[in-house]
Structures are given as structure tokens and as C-alpha cells.
Amino acid sequence: MVKSNRGISIIESMVCMVVIGIGFIAIMQLAAFSINSMDRATEKNKLNYLSEMVMEDMIGDPDNVTSYGGFIKTCSHSLNNGSNLYQKMQDKWRNRLEEKNQIRINNKDKKMPCDNSDTKKIFVNSGTNTSGKVNFFTRKGKQKKYLGVVVK
After folding, report:
1. Which among 58, 60, 77, 150 is most buried, taking Cβ atoms within 10 Å?
2. Residue 32 domain-assigned?
3. Does the predicted model carry a pTM greater than 0.85?
4. pLDDT averaged over 10-residue windows placed end to end, the chain, 152 residues
């Protein structure tokens, strides 16, 4: 006796849908992971740029390098509007660290979220060799960036 195959059973079609669904879920998780990874890489590049900018400014003004020590930037933003070069540099750092006017969407300024545990600090050790060190803590203190150089 020969039975004819009249079509796909409901069980076979359900198994097929489950397999395809698992595949789509895996692709969506991969896309979310890659977007998160790109965001972290962008943040690291910004921290590298900002820390190198701070160090270059300190190296460019070796006579006043001890005046740069004690710089602390948290989420609050206030300019000193100083007349000295080191005060103007610190105001520039505050603007850059605040990310003021860097991203515009629909004629509105956007900035990265800031947490109370996010701090940016500058340390200067003077002695026979004056050295500067930058400590950046971002993403609720989880991401850390350290950079130190001998200024003079």
C-alpha cells in the first residue's frame, strides 16, 4: 500500500519556526553586542584624545605646570574665566570634558550622561623632574584612563 504525502505536518512546521526564531534571536543579540562594543570603543577614543590634549597643554606651558595640579572635573560645570594661560587652559578642558556643543541633533545640543562617580583629575608632582598625571573615571567609575608624562 502506497501512502501519498499530502503536505507538511503541523509539527514539522512548528519545529521549523522554532529553529528560525532561535536564529533571529542570535542575530539580534550579536547586533546589540556589536553596537555596545562600538560605543565603548568610541568612549575610549574620546578619553585618549582628551587625556593627550591635557598633557600637550601642560607640556606647552612648562613654567606654570604646577598651577595645573588639583584640577578636578565632576558633573557640575563652572568656568573660572581666568586671565592666566593655565586658567584659560583649564576652562578649555572643562568645556571639552563637558562635551559642550560637540553633538547637535535637531538643533539641540546633546551630551553624554554623567554620573556622580565620574571624575577627571590632574595631578602634578614637582621635584627634580616635574611630572603630570591624568586620571579619568567614566561610566559610573567603571572605565578608567591613566596617562602620565614628565613635563620638565
Report:
1. 58
2. no
3. no
4. 69 92 96 87 79 82 79 71 78 74 64 70 78 77 74 72
